[in-house]
Design a protein that fits this description.
mainly beta; 28% strand; 1 helix; three-stranded antiparallel β-sheet; five-stranded antiparallel β-sheet
């Protein structure tokens, strides 16, 4: 085939749609926006946080959402001495698996100890530090801005800014 016989057509690959979160993850994100945490009850009665649509052991569809606490126990953790730009905190912190009160699995999130790794320990109790809810805005009013270093809750895992040692 001669070079002049080659057909060329411009093309563009696009994905002009957004995926919906569905009833399970949607309920989880809605709860976060409202300032609480939910999990889902598995076939054996255990509570999984964050919730999943299907039982990991049986593959059965799961539907029973349950509220869990926003406090819990650190199961394991890793210290981040030099946070990267897109990480949840700009100062040293720990990524931890946290078993929330009422849950049977761990939720991965950041723990802020004020930059002190000696205050971090497996088994320690932590509590959520929530970002503020977005204030209602009347028609014609300017959109509010969140306080310095925070964001308004919007239905995102970072509606919990981080966890802190209980009582801190």
């Amino acid at each position: 085939m001669a070079e002049s016989d080659v057909l060329v057509a411009p093309s563009r690959v696009e994905y002009p749609f957004r995926r919906t979160t569905g009833p399970v993850i949607g309920a989880f994100f809605t709860a976060l926006r409202e300032g609480f945490v939910v999990g889902i009850k598995a076939s054996d009665g255990t509570v999984i946080v964050p919730p999943v649509e299907y039982d990991p052991a049986t593959a059965a569809a799961l539907t029973e959402m349950v509220e869990v606490g926003d406090r819990g126990e650190v199961l394991t953790w890793a210290w981040v001495a030099e946070p990267l730009r897109d990480q949840p905190l700009s100062t040293p912190f720990a990524f931890a698996l946290i078993k929330l009160d009422g849950a049977d699995t761990g939720l991965l999130h950041a723990v802020d100890t004020g930059g002190d790794p000696s205050k971090m320990a497996t088994g320690m109790r932590v509590q959520a530090r929530w970002n503020p809810p977005k204030p209602a805005v009347a028609e014609g009013e300017e959109e509010p801005t969140p306080p310095e270093g925070q964001r308004f809750r919007e239905g995102h895992i970072l509606d919990i800014a981080c966890f802190v040692p209980e009582g801190a």
